Amino acid sequence: MSATAITSVLGRRVWDSRGRPTVEAEIALAGGVSGRAIAPAGASTGSGEAVDLRDGGSAFGGYDVTRAVAAIRDAIAPALRGMDAADQAALDARLIALDGTESKSRLGANATLAVSMAAAHAAAAAAGQPLYRNLGGEAATLLPLPQIQIFGGGAHAGRRVDVQDFLVVCPAAASFAEALDWTAEVYRAAGALMRQAGTLGGVADEGGWWPAFRTNEQALEMLVRAIEQAGFAPGRQVAIALDVAASEFGRGGRYRLGLEERELDTTGMIEFLIGWIRAYPIVSIEDPLAEDDPEGFAAFTRAVGDRVQVVGDDFLVSDAARVRAAAASGGANTVLIKPNQRGTLTETRAAWDAAREVGYAGIVSARSGETEDVTIVHLAVGWGVGQLKVGSFARSERMAKWNEALRIEEALGPRARFAGGTALGRSRR
Ligand code: 2PG
Ligand code: MG
What pTM, to 2 d.p., does this model score? Predict the structure, then answer.
């Protein structure tokens, strides 16, 4: 038996950052090493995402994962025993075939993803390599531009404001470490401003400050003030990124902004956002329109895509076919890459390959429900994606990922290249 042959696959229930159950998988190989990974979970999910299999019923609010864990024990483990963990494509193909549905609703994408990522970790351990190097070889030297949340909102803050994420990027930082230094100062300054205003109310789901604002725009104003207060030039050194997550309040071409007490159609929504782009140093907007509004995406991208990164999350759900279709109609210029939207590493990677084919940029992203698992950081570096979004600059399920990227940058030493502002997606004219 080869050293990378799988001898056992274990599934277990562990707990995520919201105190909800989630799935961990652990794979042991004949050579004596093992790999482990935990599936994350979203709150603002796209309807085209693979299924996060939950038990329903009353225990833990219906979020229990005994069925997904049982799927690992009863279906996945026997089928994968003896397979080569180093052959990710064959292993993921087996998972896909075993499940047999379009959406992974039989085994659960939480079960298949945990197993898929655990196999990658086991294979890297067998090769005696860190995961990013085992994925990308010697060429894996690109440290991503981090997109870091300062204020949480939307579904991550009880819909206190409509926009889900108010984030910053540091395009002028010289290294990943420096981008974190700068962000730490902005995060602190934002907290101090909230305290001064008497509106400091703790943090939202991903560690960003609680958004006690009267309008969405007030959050943007506060963010610019925080950047200045921290001593940086807004736009040039530290710029703003938004995740509007418009599928949460838009459907059928109608957008209901609760905070503004306004309902806009697609054109109105686009004009509304363009107004913000004119007034604030915004370089990236995710899900500006809803997932069911491809024409809106195309119109928005036509209007601003040459100077603003337009990111599809719910709109593209890390799906290669959707990325190609979006490119054909001119919608978005960047794909958010979330492994649990597909349920295997191979399918997730296919979305990034499709993005490169069509000239889109990419952002590897965590979910709002996270754990200590840092696999996505290795995917970002190993695949050379160029951007990484894992929530805010607080709480260890977030910090674990930023810290892992610091370790990778240090290990690469002089070979490390920081993606900086060049990683941002732009539409070619
Ligand atoms: C998003 C993510 C992360 P969720 O919309 O980009 O912020 O949120 O995991 O809840 O889908
Ligand atoms: Mg999003």
Answer: 0.98
